[in-house]
Design brief:
With about 130 residues, this protein is mainly alpha-helical. Among the domains are: about 45 residues; about 35 residues, no CATH class. The protein is built from 2 helices and 2 strands. A two-stranded antiparallel ribbon has the order 1-2. The longest helix has about 40 residues. The chain starts with 12 loop residues before the first helix and ends in a 23-residue tail after the last helix. Belongs to the histone-like protein H-NS family.
Length: about 130
């Protein structure tokens, strides 16, 4: 690189635009090469992690931050449905906004129960 200073204020618009395009091209090339290098390094790390764990990448379990495998949970069917938008809620976690708003306007949660399910029904046990 040359050490001479460039007076951008004295440059014409066309010269500045040309310089801008040159810088953009150089940056695009460097960003692409940096991205390729990072992807290569990531692939190496993933290969070494897979060899250590002995797990296939196709059916590998998801991992928490501490490195332990997460337990597989069964799918939870929805218990409540918004009749206006057909949004559903399983009854777990925070109540959705539509349900909170409906309860505040005087509705009861049982009014939104999907047929065949109910909040008061509890768990079914096999005989």
């Amino acid at each position: 690189m040359s050490t001479k200073k460039i007076d951008f204020e004295a440059m014409s618009f066309d010269d500045l635009w040309s310089l801008h395009e040159q810088i953009s091209q150089i940056l695009a090339v460097r960003i692409t090469s940096e991205k390729r290098e990072l992807e290569r390094r990531l692939a190496v790390l993933n290969r070494s992690r897979g060899a250590i764990e002995g797990a296939d990448s196709d059916n590998a379990p998801s991992y928490k931050a501490n490195g332990k495998a997460r337990r597989a949970y069964p799918r939870v069917l929805p218990k409540y449905r918004n009749p206006q938008t057909s949004e559903t809620w399983s009854g777990r976690g925070k109540q959705p906004r539509w349900l909170v708003a409906a309860i505040k306007t005087g509705h009861r949660i049982e009014e939104f129960a999907i047929n065949g399910t109910g909040a008061s029904r509890g768990r079914r046990h096999r005989a």
